[in-house]
Amino acid sequence: METYSRRWFLGASTTALVSAAGLTACGSGGSGGSDGTLTAFVYGDDAAKVQAKAVSRFNSSAAARETKGSLRLEKVPGAEYPAKLRTAMGSPNAPDVFFNWGGGSIKAYREAGQILDLTDVIAGDPVLGDGFLPSVLDAGALGGRKYGIPMRGMQPVILFYNKTLFAEHGLKPPATWDQLLDNNAKLKKAGITPFALGGADIWPELMWLEYLVDRIGGPKVFDRVKNGDPAGWGDPAVLKAARTVRELVDDGAFGKGFSSVAYTNGGAPAALAKGKAAMHLMGSWEYSTQLGKFPDFARKQLGWCPFPTFDGGAGDIRNVVGNPTNYWSVNTRTRNKDTALAFLRTCASDTYARELIANGDVPATAGADKLLDASPSPEFARFQYRMVREAPAFTLSWDQAVDPDAATPMLTEVNKLFVGKSSPERFVAALKELK
């Protein structure tokens, strides 16, 4: 479940999205041909089979006939996707509809005037306006304007725990920060690392800061940064979160060797499953990872709960961080906007939602709860869906929300904070310099 949307920036930020001027230099007309066929770019992983079925179904629908158009799906290999989309958008053969991650991944296209503002369309269209969970629609926005329609599963970050260890030591899932610290103390006394952490990958460390900033200062703190104000990093909640991280590290919450443990090679999930660590803060794909590597543990011993509240903090325990979903966006220069929008509406259908569920995803559609009994993991799917449905705010992962040029240096500073090469104060100062 992790592959298609978790680490997009590794390809995008290293090649660096070009400026808005560069994107428009070669023109960017939609690729719709004289026969009315539009092109849709999609991230070409295994999950693209769901989008392939959707395109085929749409092309034989009444909506396609009424709008006098059809779609051709182009699957772009995952590692190549950000660069190929960028190149295509600066050419006469730009896609009419394209897959993206929202946030920073579309900022350059918005600045170049290449992405259709869907805010008013969504507000005036009951299918689009009422068909998706509001927190997910909002999470992909920029500056309060919506540019995408949800088209894949949701991936919130969840606190997972080992139910066997919790029962053996008389622990309960922490609902408050004090309860979390109390659990930590009891676990360390028993010789158990409280939290697994794949610090070698760095991005798992980011999840801690994302949730702490939300719980301490509320979602508006990071919203400032996401919307282009780097001074937002100077909010007191960011410094408090950084100090809290250092307290956790210094107190041994992640053990002594977390910086050499990876998520990508299975080290952190194994620590949780084998009882070496009691908890693991990770995206919802942790469930499928455990199911694949340690199926008995996943089915019988894996528990999950929201990230706890912080004493005196402004953030609601229902707020979520992570990857809301992936989005379809529309090129402003498409030759058939009606066809493009008609296709986007199909993503709100029960038929499309059922196909996502069969693929192991949890859809972002408003009525998906009644369909989740068909999920390969109904109990976890229902928890995840309720979590997002009830969330007042869903903060997009910082490395996806910021400008792609800032993602890698931001992660560098996160890692320096965790491994003790930077202080909380220097961490904040460095983030404020990111543009």
From TrEMBL:
<protein>
    <submittedName>
        <fullName>Extracellular solute-binding protein</fullName>
    </submittedName>
</protein>
<feature type="signal peptide">
    <location>
        <begin position="1"/>
        <end position="20"/>
    </location>
</feature>
<keyword id="KW-0732">Signal</keyword>
<dbReference type="InterPro" id="IPR006059">
    <property type="entry name" value="SBP"/>
</dbReference>
<dbReference type="Pfam" id="PF01547">
    <property type="entry name" value="SBP_bac_1"/>
</dbReference>
<dbReference type="InterPro" id="IPR050490">
    <property type="entry name" value="Bact_solute-bd_prot1"/>
</dbReference>
